[in-house]
Write a structure and sequence with these properties.
The protein is an alpha/beta fold. The chain folds into two domains: 2-118 and 202-324, Glycoside hydrolase/deacetylase (TIM Barrel); 124-187, no CATH class. It contains twelve helices and ten strands. The protein has helices spanning 2-13, 46-59, 65-73, 92-104, 124-132, 137-145, 160-171, 176-187, 205-211, 234-252, 272-280, 312-324; strands spanning 25-29, 31-32, 43-44, 61-62, 81-88, 108-112, 217-221, 258-260, 284-286, 305-306. The strands form three sheets. Strands 1, 4, 5, 6, 7 and 10 form a six-stranded parallel sheet that branches. A two-stranded parallel sheet has the order 2-3. Helix 4 links the parallel strand 5 and strand 6 (108-112). Helix 5 packs antiparallel against helix 7 and helix 5 packs parallel to helix 8. It is globular and about 60 Å long. The two termini are 32 Å apart.
């Protein structure tokens, strides 16, 4: 069955006899899970992720992000070189993604938000989604908003999706303490709040150690609380980057060296965010800017392509387009 599917994928890719030496790809995933509501389209199903890996091992040269970065400085990539990355650090990266990576012997880098440092068991955007989708949440939240720093800053729309977008846009640029305080106030407005969805929880420190134990998966930094770094004052910026690295270094027992900007936004080259990343000891950083990796590459602004929940055939067609762009 797999051989037949792979043959179909290779025909769809149309790569017979083709060579590619001009650049390489870095792919961006977040979750590998079967989910219901997925506001940000973060999840790729395990079946589709297995198909993606099958495509990569038969048509490309899967390699690690660190090795790809070294090739970019040496001014030459292996043909069709591709590195896999994950952002955020959801627990399903260990339980769903890692077994498939191991089966296909494909390395990956997981950029982890060090939320466990504050004992958090839910990402703030998932907590906000849980709040606005509680029964009658808009009618309870709108009056409550007027007694918070969010007063007058939402559209007043009753649809949970509209309310979510309004509040998310306000919370995104805030430092951790201010964001937590506002979420705490909003939680107090909801009387029938469902418990946190354990399938969307972050990795614990123990799980983080298991994920990176044998070198197949590299652990990278992704800040402490996933704010918009370019909006933070200097002290909060330093704490997000340095504090996250210190926590992960301690958990893993060795220093991490790769970073991914939350929301893929690192600001201008040589700007304050990049300078903070460099001074923390990171040697490379990934953005969400679409593009093929060329040589020589700016190691602190590496481009990536976001991967959605596509079938193997569709994924193969996307790869072919990206590699030949």
């Amino acid at each position: 069955m797999r051989a037949r599917g792979t043959a179909r994928v290779r025909r769809a890719a149309g790569w017979a006899g083709r060579g590619f030496r001009r650049g390489a790809l870095i792919l961006l995933y977040h979750r590998v899970a079967d989910v219901g509501r997925d506001t940000w389209s973060l999840a790729v199903s395990p079946d589709h992720f297995a198909e993606h890996l099958d495509v990569l091992v038969h048509t490309c040269y899967p390699t690690s992000l660190q090795r790809l970065a070294c090739h970019s400085q040496a001014d030459r990539f292996p043909g069709r070189a591709v590195a896999i990355t994950f952002d955020d650090g959801y627990a399903d990266n260990l339980y769903e993604a890692r077994p498939l990576l191991e089966r296909y012997d494909v390395p990956a880098t997981v950029f982890v938000t060090a939320s466990s440092r504050h004992g958090e068991t839910e990402y703030w955007w998932d907590e906000l989604e849980r709040l606005v989708h509680a029964p009658d949440a808009p009618s309870h939240l709108q009056p409550c908003l007027e007694s918070t720093a969010l007063a007058g800053r939402t559209s007043g729309q009753d649809a949970p999706e509209d309310l979510y977008n309004d509040i998310w846009g306000i919370l995104q640029p805030l430092a951790w303490g201010n964001r937590r305080a506002l979420l705490h106030q909003l939680r107090g407005c909801i009387h029938d709040l469902a418990p946190a969805d354990h399938t969307r929880r972050p990795l614990t420190d123990d799980e983080l150690g298991r994920l990176g134990a044998d070198g197949l998966v590299e652990i990278g930094g992704h800040s402490v609380s996933h704010p918009l770094l370019t909006a933070l004052p200097a002290d909060a910026l330093q704490e997000e980057i340095n504090g996250g690295k210190r926590h992960l270094d301690n958990v893993l027992g060795s220093p991490i060296s790769s970073f991914s900007y939350p929301f893929g936004e690192g600001g201008p080259p040589a700007g304050p965010v990049e300078q903070a990343v460099q001074s923390a000891g990171f040697t490379l950083a990934c953005t969400n800017r679409r593009g093929t990796l060329r040589t020589p590459a700016d190691p602190y602004h590496l481009p990536r392509y976001v991967v959605d929940d596509w079938s193997g055939d569709h994924f193969a067609r996307r790869l072919r387009k990206w590699l030949l762009d």
